[in-house]
């Protein structure tokens, strides 16, 4: 981990997280922000970050609005919510809103480091919940993350695949060539990390993709 932004309006929290990260990750460049606008400005000015640690409640943000705003503006930057709130279902909601993880401020330092390493490894992190609920939450979030990586046109093609349309039918409905459809389907399978249309349909049905079409 080379570059991390700590976005929290409490200086003591920022100092605490800075200490944890500096000790656990050697030569990591740390940046700080005390509001959502400041965080956005830092990311825009400094470029990509390996991780952004975002307080759930800070100036310029209400609920998950800050998380959603950062994810929309900087989709390639992983954002982890760090919060003192621990209401049941909050971690699930954070993941569903696009967070790469949810870290309660009450966690031990060693647990915070483990959580950050989990996210840096490309996985989602949530605090210990009911084991089955936690597993299902992380799986759903992972599937949604794969779907979100699709372009708008690829999502349209995926919806038609889920609806049972053949390639020639998709080509007719979208008024494109079969070659174009095959290229889209191939790209969709790659981004979803599956090997067949059937696997793709089974995967996205787990998060009810296409039911709102």
From TrEMBL:
<feature type="modified residue" description="4-aspartylphosphate">
    <location>
        <position position="55"/>
    </location>
</feature>
<keyword id="KW-0597">Phosphoprotein</keyword>
<dbReference type="InterPro" id="IPR011006">
    <property type="entry name" value="CheY-like_superfamily"/>
</dbReference>
<dbReference type="InterPro" id="IPR001789">
    <property type="entry name" value="Sig_transdc_resp-reg_receiver"/>
</dbReference>
<dbReference type="Pfam" id="PF00072">
    <property type="entry name" value="Response_reg"/>
</dbReference>
<dbReference type="InterPro" id="IPR016032">
    <property type="entry name" value="Sig_transdc_resp-reg_C-effctor"/>
</dbReference>
<feature type="domain" description="HTH luxR-type">
    <location>
        <begin position="143"/>
        <end position="208"/>
    </location>
</feature>
<dbReference type="InterPro" id="IPR000792">
    <property type="entry name" value="Tscrpt_reg_LuxR_C"/>
</dbReference>
<protein>
    <submittedName>
        <fullName>Response regulator transcription factor</fullName>
    </submittedName>
</protein>
<dbReference type="InterPro" id="IPR051015">
    <property type="entry name" value="EvgA-like"/>
</dbReference>
<dbReference type="InterPro" id="IPR058245">
    <property type="entry name" value="NreC/VraR/RcsB-like_REC"/>
</dbReference>
<dbReference type="Pfam" id="PF00196">
    <property type="entry name" value="GerE"/>
</dbReference>
<dbReference type="InterPro" id="IPR036388">
    <property type="entry name" value="WH-like_DNA-bd_sf"/>
</dbReference>
<feature type="domain" description="Response regulatory">
    <location>
        <begin position="3"/>
        <end position="120"/>
    </location>
</feature>
<keyword id="KW-0238">DNA-binding</keyword>
